[in-house]
Write a structure and sequence with these properties.
globular; 4-stranded antiparallel β-sheet; mainly beta; single chain
């Protein structure tokens, strides 16, 4: 089992930046991939990016590539999402997720709200 706890959400003006963190605990040695998803009001949860826990290769949703950067610190078992040039459409609850498998997310955090004002 792995537990995930996000932090760092908040209110920011359009064009601003935020950095989210996700602290992982438990059986982190089992992890293969970690990442971030978000859910805007009235919309389905969408994947926005992933990073391989070992190796660090990253993958992004087209609409955030170049604005968002995912990184991780395996020594501290922490995942990060650095967001720049935020837009009102980025308003959502952001979730970190993790899995020992490549095809499905097994663990989610509780979510952190990001609100971007115009």
């Amino acid at each position: 089992q792995v537990q995930l706890v996000e932090s760092g959400g908040g209110l920011v003006q359009a064009g601003g930046s935020l950095r989210l963190s996700c602290a992982a605990s438990g059986d982190t040695s089992s992890l293969r991939v970690v990442g971030w998803l978000r859910q805007a009001p009235g919309k389905v949860r969408e994947w926005i990016g992933s990073i391989l826990w070992v190796g660090g290769s990253t993958y992004y949703l087209d609409s955030v590539r170049g604005r968002f950067t995912i990184s991780r610190d395996t020594a501290k078992n922490t995942l990060f999402l650095q967001m720049h040039n935020l837009k009102p459409d980025d308003t959502a609850v952001y979730y970190c997720a993790a899995s020992p498998r490549a095809s499905v997310w097994d663990y989610y955090g509780q979510g952190t709200q990001v609100t971007v004002s115009s």
